[in-house]
Amino acid sequence: MAWLSLLLGGVLLLFLARGEKKKSAAHLLERQTKVKVVASMEQGNAVNLNSLSDETFLQKLSREFTNTRRQLGSGALIKLAAVVFLLGILSIYINKNFVRGDSWIVLAIVELVGLYFGYQWLQKREKAAFDTEFPDALNMLTSAISSGESLMHAILYVGKTLDGEVGKEFKIMGERLQMGESPDSVFRKSCKRFPYSAFHFFVITMRANMQRGGQLKEVMTRLNRLMFDARAVEKKKYALTSEARTSAKIVAAIPFIFLFMLQFLSPDNYEYVMFEPKGRVILYYVLVSEFIGIAIVWKLMKGVEA
């Protein structure tokens, strides 16, 4: 049960850290954009982030399922079934060598934890691809507008020229606008496809320009610069905390590596620590102290402001 509690605590800690990171990035973009980009538009309805992201719980669940299935690519169900099967085998190994508890409970926890980390890996991979492709899309869009193209044709140009998921989405946006679909509907669907702060503020700029007009080239240039500054701040923050994060990972991994080696180097001591009542006091002490130490380091890193 100690192992299971630790796994659940680690997942919860990662979930909170991920939420804090998203909130920090969104807050930075929102603060900078209000000051430099859309300060003259704040009194109207053009800048309304909530209207782009309002969803019920079932709608959010459906969106996450659709995006995850697309991220898995062709044969998504087969890939998912293979992962579930491998996690089942892993749960048997963990239960036999570490937990020795109810096999069904161990199976459920290992499946949930494994699928959660797999989901996080897919989201992180797509976010990295978006961060790489989206600046190119903004530069191409600005260049097309500077050459005299309308916004709709500029979006179509980006979609036809740029490869990757961002290019595909721009192509879909342009085709929907060309067919006469309302901009709000088109942009709302695109925000479900890319639920990132940078894309949301890009959409806000497009909506504001369509509703009120203005110097789109200048606004796009400033928006691109703000997004670059936000990424630079985030990278600077990670650079400042890289040593602490690496140290925390090493310290957190040492007890588990030691226990894994102990079952081969000294099986008697391993049995005493893992399964004897007196030995488990030592195990609980190590786990609790590790959790407190990592929580303190995580809190200190989150408090760093570049």
Provide a short characterization of the protein structure.
By secondary structure, this protein is an all-alpha fold.
Describe it:
Helix 1 runs parallel beside helix 13, helix 5 crosses helix 6 (151-161) and helix 11 crosses helix 12 (267-275). With 306 residues, this protein is mostly helical. It is elongated, with a radius of gyration of 24 Å. It is 85% helix and 0% strand. The model is unreliable at 19-26 and 32-47 (pLDDT under 50). The relative contact order is 0.10. The chain has helices at residues 2-36, 49-53, 57-72, 76-99, 103-146, 151-161, 164-178, 183-193, 197-212, 216-240, 242-265, 267-275, 277-302. The two termini are 40 Å apart. The chain is built from 13 helices and no strands.
Radius of gyration: 24 Å
How would you classify the helix and strand content by structural class?
A: mainly alpha
Low-confidence stretches: 19-26, 32-47
Question: What proportion of the residues is helical, as a percent range?
Answer: over 70%
| Helix-strand string | HHHHHHHHHHHHH
Number of strands: 0
In terms of topology, how is this protein built?
Blueprint: H1 2-36, H2 49-53, H3 57-72, H4 76-99, H5 103-146, H6 151-161, H7 164-178, H8 183-193, H9 197-212, H10 216-240, H11 242-265, H12 267-275, H13 277-302
